Amino acid sequence: MSSSPPTSLLDVETGPGKPPMLRVEATGDAASWVAEQRDVLRAVVAEHGSVLVRGLGLRDAAGTGAVLQRLANSPMTEMEAFAPRETYSEGVYSSSQWPPNQPMCMHHELSYRLEFPGLMLFACLTAPAEGGATAVADSATVLDALPTELAERFEREGWLLTRSYNDEIGASLAEAFGTEDRGAIESYCRANAIEFEWQPDGGLRTRQRRSAVVRHPVTGRRCWFNQIAFLNEWTIAPEVREYLVDVYGADGLPFNTRFGEGDPIGEDVVQLLNKLYVDHTAREPWQAGDLLLVDNVRTAHSREPFEGPREVLVAMGDPVRLADCSPTVEVTAG
User: Fold this and answer.
1) pLDDT digit string, tens, across residues 264-276
2) Which positions, given as ranges, span the membrane (predicted)?
3) Which end of the chain is more exposed for a tag (fewer CB within 10 A), N or C?
């Protein structure tokens, strides 16, 4: 593969409101180039929390999987998905099925699990005509910007995720747990500190309490690490929320979040969290062939509304255990 590879961290372009970027002129096998530059790329992510590599020319799921294999220490299989995806290979998925006109607000992938990806890869195969950026935000900076009293409450209590599974909205049981077998689902829930209750109609409701603030497993830096705002009812578009509450009831929403001890999170708090993310967002419009690498603990990501066809593959690697991130809330798995 011919390329002009970066030789040091000085080659990284940085600027206000923009994610760090490496520009390469590459033709041929992207995976081979990534293998050669693996240490540089991982060092850039460690330094900046994310990096957009432009010029790799990624074209398909096979190429994305090959890049993941060479860059990550190990791929990670998604469990407890909140929205359906298509699986291409181990650790490589389509973007979550989410309405194009609705944003996917800032969050950390699978931050409600006891084990989550440490490294996220996003590969743009088709760039949308308008919008659709996968934006990023530094979680330690967001935490520092939170009002002290609110940050201390979340650090003390953690956060609570509630979910209602049915056959009509959100991820199905099979999509979330990889099976519809009740016994297997119950075993998974017990092993992963998830309270569960089967409903008369066969649906499932779950509750899981997690830390809202963790320490980065390598640097020890305190990070705002959760999906409190993204999965809260007040982030859902008002007309969609009203419909879901009318059909399923306030307790039957596909997902919702609360303070760790069970109190509702007010709309004002959710708006504040989303505003702080907006204030610290870095974005760059996608170009076909781009590769975005994200430290999932240090850096939150989002997906902005878009128009036109958009194909961005998602890959997960380097699993991290919550227990290795100094959680502030005790979690006991069965």
Assistant:
1) 999 999 999 999 9
2) none
3) C
